[in-house]
Every structure is written in C-alpha cells, then in structure tokens.
C-alpha cells in the first residue's frame, strides 16, 4: 500500500509580512527614540540601534527555524521546557534587583528576562493539557482547575519578581485559552471575577502600585512624580498631531519621557509620526489578531488551535495594555510593546513563537503528495 506523504503548504504570508513590518518599525523607532538618551549616556547615538538590529536579525533567523519545525514536537518537550523555565524564574533571585524588581538574569553585557518565556510556556502547557483531556473541559475541577493551578504557579513566580503586569498577561492568556476550548460561561464569569479580584488585591497591597493608580486618575495632581510619565506621554501624543513633527525630531525623548525606547516608545511614534503613525501600528496589530484567529480556526487539530490562540493572545494582550497605558486609558505599568519596544530577550522569544504560529499555518495548508 502506497504511503501518503504530507507536503507542508505555504506560510501565511500576510501574518509573516505583518510581523516583519512590526519588527522593522521597532528597529527604526528604537534608534529614533533612543538616540538622544544613548548619545549622552554612552557617547554613541547608535548604541541601542545596533543592539536592537542584532536581536532582530537573530530573532528572524530563529523564526525561520521554528517555522520549519513541526509544532507537535513542543508537545513532547513541554515538561522539559517547563522545568527549564522554573529554574530560570528562580535564578533571577541570584542577581541584584534593578529599580526594586528582580526580573533579569545578567551575563556580562547581555540580560535575559525569564518571564518573557514563561508566558508562552503557559500556552504550551494549557494547549497540551486540554488536547490530552478533552473530555474534562466542561468539568471545573478536572478541566479548569489543573490549568489554573499551573498558571497560578507560574504567575506567582513572576509576581515575586515584582512584575504584576506580566503576571496578569499570563493569567489572561490561560483564561482566553480555556474560553476558546469550550469552558462553561458560568465558569468563565467566575474566572473573570477572580482575575479582576487578583489584580485589585495586589494593587492595593503595594504602595507604589496605589500611587500609580491615583496618578492615573488625576496625573496633574502630582505632575512631577506619580503623574509624570503619563503627562509626558500625552504631551508627546498631542504634539504629533495628524502627521507628526518628523522622524528623529521628538522633543519628549530628550529626557522628558524616561527611557523612551522602552515601554513608552508608542508615545514617541505618536509625536514623530503623528496620529497616522500610531494608527499604522495599531492596524498592524489588528491584522496580526485577524491572522492569529484564522490560524487557530484552521489548525489541523485541537492542540494547534489552542496553541495558536495562546501565542496570539500573548502578543495582543501585551499590545492592548501598552497602548492603553501610553494613551492614559489605564494606570502606568511596565509592559513593552511587542516587536517594537527595545529588548533583546523579549524580541527573540516573541520571534521564536511567531515561527511556531507560522508552522501551524503551514500545516493547515498542507497538501497530500
């Protein structure tokens, strides 16, 4: 009997192009946003440019590699990846804190943030667990609780690093995957309430988080302290108008917005490229969401569908939070804009899992030969 061979189809070109455009915008805007800061701090206006470009090239290579690896391989290696991730999450406490938070493993000039990997590990675990136990998804104790328990353990480790924003992203990814898998609406209501309660509790018990909340509600009441970042972000966005002041011409990046190439890079985009520039970025994320949904809906199996959902959710939840913070729609919190904000470990890990997402699309386009 002749054995049927499966030939991988083409990647989702729209998704691939969207990712590359976001990364390209990121490299250009990291250079523009950081040039003034890096010229004074490192005596080199291109200091962050070459680093971000190197990470972008490395990330693109990694994406091409994972794009050609059968995503089912990760199902077999999930346990090993989980163990490695927990070791890395513990390792951060061996290093001195930075601005009161212990989030980084530093090896010479390079640094790595394990929480960036942990978000995706939750997606790997939940996808595998649900796919292997489909009969339990409607059962709260057998279907929902095991996934929440694992996510809670990961979230607790991230929270100990004083990173509430990424903790919330991790939990929201799990909840979204459970919803897509078919968890009962009544249970989803409980989960949503639990997530909101969790967030409110950990905001209330940390004075600096309460200061951020009050600063968000009325930033001009303390314009030099708790409301400072938001006010400078709004000034940048407002100064840009429709078409912006021109790339490289931002005033707010000149020591007004702290480290403008990081979490508030969208404000610099708004100032230099205007409303049009911001809308281009937002449109690209909307296209990414659309293609992520298509990838999940067309995946060849439940595991691929849930994994695509989780990967897409990580990117979109982070983008939503970052955009909301920069525009003053929610309190200031440290969530980078995916693909665009400066950061090597974040960019490379994102790109690795973009390759996984693209492989899911390739397999859904597979043809018999």
Could you characterize the architecture of this molecule?
The protein is mainly alpha-helical. It has one domain. It is 68% helix and 3% strand. It has twelve helices and four strands. The protein has helices at 13-41, 47-67, 73-91, 114-132, 140-160, 164-181, 185-204, 207-217, 228-240, 265-298, 302-326, 344-364; strands at 6-7, 105-107, 110-112, 367-368. The strands form two sheets. A two-stranded antiparallel sheet has the order 1-4. It has a two-stranded antiparallel ribbon with strand order 2-3. β2 and β3 form a beta hairpin. α4 runs antiparallel to α5 (140-160). The protein is globular. The model is unreliable at 1-6 (pLDDT under 50).
Q: Which parts are unreliable, with pLDDT below 50 for 5 consecutive residues or more?
A: 1-6
Number of helices: 12
Q: List how many beta strands DSSP finds.
A: 4
Share in helix: 55-70%
Report the order of strands and helices: EHHHEEHHHHHHHHHE
The portion of residues forming beta strands comes to under 5%
Radius of gyration: 21 Å
Separation of termini?
A: 15 Å
Number of domains: 1
Widest sheet: strand order? Answer: 1-4
Quaternary structure state of the chains depicted: single chain
**Largest sheet: number of strands, sense, barrel closure:** 2 strands, antiparallel
Report the average pLDDT across residues.
86
Comma- or semicolon-separated keywords:
369 residues; mainly alpha; two-stranded antiparallel ribbon; two-stranded antiparallel sheet; 12 helices; globular
